[in-house]
């Protein structure tokens, strides 16, 4: 069951107080004028995308998830109340928005129902405003089992480093079946007359695969029961039926009618299946390049807001050149509450990596950056950012393709002036301590696009604009 705690939902679009404390008219043009905006994570996830999507959703009509699945965990804090969403777009907290789970998302039906029920229980009316693509692929009960068995079999055969450290949500196996086709189930299939036969056929195949995997992993495995799976799926399909539609068409009509669209990226650029730190990546297109195919729309987004923490975190395995396995890393973890929204795993923490950030800003076409969790750096005795790497005695300024090469990269750090005090009460960027502002400017100069949002706390109100 997803970790969705939603209680006070009295969110009024008009009552959104601009973080600069002024009227909506005082917001910078980029925050009000773009017809299409994307929010994309620039690191290894958990950068604060949920917070910024929620913030921007007040000024958009349609919010669209186009990739990933319930491996995502997007937190929104409203008036001290924390909410965690995994499949439903974060725009749902704003009553005037339409919310789309697009064809590129892999959907855990029971998880989606659980999230919707939790929203309804807290007074969020989701009827007629949360839509599910009939072309989205379904995360079936065998997928999480397969995900975990592949991980443990890989670790057993080739050592712990062979496992990706997935969220165990069945994401990789579901996208693999999408590519394989004969073992895939799409939302539209749930309503087809041959559904029981399809599920029986795939269950038989999966039981054979899972049995073999379990043997390699030296673990036990209870065969899946096709009839029980079909009955559960039938109930989920009936409950979700009113929401299932051709979302690409709905979105296309919205764009044609001048409605403002916000794309909510899940996971993040360094987890992209093509451009991330492969194979320590997720299974979908996580950059703005994935919007077209994952939402079914041409043209992408005019504004691409790249979301980056003021430092680096990662959950799961894989190279992380600036990781600090020491008191600095522990302090970042505790101050930033760096524990996974989806799995609760402690996040690996380290200094901001500008080599990777330059790479992902370029890759995703970020037009501006939101620098998040700057408050977490306050009070550190020293402050470093990686500006380049050294690999085999050579200086390099872009990540190498092989994960094992990235793991061998030695970061070259710039020392920046630390800053003290609490940033949470700051209501404008100009009110930040001089050294904190210098940090923001250093990042901006390095990545070559404006840092237009600085976040100094989890709450909606703790969002500073430039
Ligand atoms: P997402 O997956 O990118 O949406 O990010 P998560 O929600 O998984 O993780 C980000 C965490 O940072 C959440 O707990 C947020 O509430 C929190 N957060 C967001 N912005 C800030 C900030 O500026 N300061 C602090 N201290 N926490 C923040
Ligand atoms: P949000 O949207 C952080 C990571 C997993 C693992 C790798 C593959 O909340 O930022 P998967 O289950 O996708 O096959 O796992 O990708 N991962 C994330 N890490 N935030 C996420 O999403 C992530 N989605 C996937 O930890 O290392
Ligand atoms: Mg997250």
Explain what this protein looks like in three dimensions.
Helix content is 31%, strand content 18%. It has 13 helices and 20 strands. It folds into 2 domains: 11-134 and 246-465, Alpha-Beta Complex (Adenylosuccinate Synthetase, Chain A, domain 3); 137-242, Adenylosuccinate Synthetase, subunit A, domain 2 (Orthogonal Bundle). The two termini are 39 Å apart. Helix 4 crosses helix 5, helix 4 runs parallel beside helix 6 and helix 6 (195-216) packs across helix 7. With 466 residues, the chain is of the alpha/beta class. The strands form 5 sheets. A 10-stranded mixed beta sheet has the order 9-7-5-2-10-1-11-15-19-20, sandwiched between helices. The structure holds guanosine-5'-diphosphate, 6-O-phosphoryl inosine monophosphate and magnesium ion. Residues 45-46, 72-74, 341 line the site of magnesium ion.
In short:
By secondary structure, this protein is an alpha/beta fold. Helices cover 31% and strands 18% of the residues.
């Amino acid at each position: 069951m997803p970790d969705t705690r939603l209680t006070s939902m009295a969110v009024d679009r008009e009552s959104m107080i601009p973080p600069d404390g002024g009227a909506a008219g005082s917001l910078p043009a980029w925050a009000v004028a773009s017809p299409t905006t994307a929010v994309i994570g620039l690191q290894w996830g958990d950068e604060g995308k949920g917070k910024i999507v929620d913030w921007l959703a007040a000024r958009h009509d349609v919010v669209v998830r186009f990739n990933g699945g319930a491996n995502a965990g997007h937190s929104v804090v409203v008036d001290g109340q924390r909410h965690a969403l995994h499949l439903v777009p974060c725009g749902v907290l704003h009553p005037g928005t339409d919310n789309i789970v697009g064809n590129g998302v892999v959907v855990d039906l029971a998880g989606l129902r659980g999230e919707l029920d939790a929203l309804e229980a807290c007074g969020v009316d989701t009827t007629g405003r949360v839509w599910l693509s009939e072309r989205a692929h379904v995360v079936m009960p065998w997928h999480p089992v397969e995900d975990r068995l592949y991980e443990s079999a890989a670790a057993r055969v080739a050592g712990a480093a062979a496992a990706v450290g997935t969220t165990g949500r069945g994401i990789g196996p579901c996208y693999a079946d999408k590519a394989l086709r004969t073992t895939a189930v799409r939302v539209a299939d749930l309503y087809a007359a041959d559904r029981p036969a399809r599920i029986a056929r795939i269950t038989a195949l999966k039981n054979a695969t899972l049995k073999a995997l379990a043997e390699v992993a030296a673990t036990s495995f209870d065969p899946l029961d096709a009839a029980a799976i079909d009955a559960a799926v039938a109930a989920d399909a009936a409950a979700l039926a009113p929401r299932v539609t051709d979302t690409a068409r709905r979105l296309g009509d919205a764009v044609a009618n001048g409605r403002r669209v916000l794309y909510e990226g899940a996971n993040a650029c360094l987890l992209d299946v093509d451009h991330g730190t492969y194979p320590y990546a997720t299974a979908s297109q996580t950059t703005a390049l994935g919007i077209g195919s994952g939402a079914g729309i041409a043209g992408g987004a005019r504004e691409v807001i790249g979301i980056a923490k003021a430092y680096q975190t990662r959950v799961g395995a894989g190279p992380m050149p600036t990781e600090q396995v020491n008191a600095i890393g522990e302090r970042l973890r505790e101050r930033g509450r760096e524990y996974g929204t989806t799995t609760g795993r402690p996040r690996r923490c380290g200094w901001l990596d500008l080599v990777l950030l330059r790479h992902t800003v370029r890759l995703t076409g970020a037009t501006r950056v939101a620098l998040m969790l700057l408050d977490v750096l306050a009070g550190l005795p020293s402050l470093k950012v990686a500006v380049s790497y050294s690999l085999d005695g050579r200086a390099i300024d872009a990540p190498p393709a092989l994960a094992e090469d990235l793991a061998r990269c030695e970061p070259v750090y710039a020392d920046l002036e630390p800053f003290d005090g609490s940033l949470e009460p700051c209501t404008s960027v100009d009110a930040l301590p001089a050294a904190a502002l210098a940090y923001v400017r250093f990042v901006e100069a390095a990545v070559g696009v404006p840092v237009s949002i600085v976040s100094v706390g989890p709450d909606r109100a703790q969002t500073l604009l430039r």
